[in-house]
């Protein structure tokens, strides 16, 4: 079952994203992985990818996570809290994360609460 979760609510897709494994992400999506299934903390694989990019300093890892984010988007991934994260990333001056969130569909015109 590609959507079976661990004790923290993470599906195998989370593990593939965490390892920046584009091939596994693609295979899981093709096998029917739910790209919008959130873990127990409410985070989706797309949000997890954005967090990984924020922490990464390696160019090859950033490129891999960008490709993974595109796969997730192509499979219909939505990021329900993307706008809140966009405000945070912009406030932190984190250009790479801002780009990732915008590419993930964040509304650049949404007003923060």
From TrEMBL:
Organism of provenance: Micromonas pusilla
InterPro entries: Ankyrin_rpt, Ankyrin_rpt-contain_sf
Gene3D superfamilies membership: Ankyrin repeat-containing domain
ANK repeat residues: 8-40, 81-113
Top-level lineage group: Eukaryota
Pfam families (alphabetical): Ank, Ank_2
SUPFAM superfamilies: Ankyrin repeat (SSF48403)
Name this protein carries in UniProt: Ankyrin repeat protein
Keywords assigned by UniProt, alphabetized: ANK repeat, Repeat
SMART domains associated with the record: ANK (SM00248)
């Amino acid at each position: 079952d590609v959507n079976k979760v661990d004790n923290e609510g993470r599906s195998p897709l989370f593990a593939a994203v965490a390892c920046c494994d584009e091939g596994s992400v693609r295979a899981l999506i093709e096998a029917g992985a739910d790209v919008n299934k959130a873990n127990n903390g409410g985070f989706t694989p797309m949000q997890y990818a954005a967090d990984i990019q924020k922490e990464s300093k390696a160019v090859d890892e950033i490129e891999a996570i960008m490709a993974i984010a595109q796969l997730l988007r192509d499979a219909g991934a939505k990021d329900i809290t993307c706008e809140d994260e966009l405000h945070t990333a912009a406030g932190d001056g984190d250009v790479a994360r801002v780009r990732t969130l915008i590419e993930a569909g964040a509304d650049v015109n949404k007003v923060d609460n």
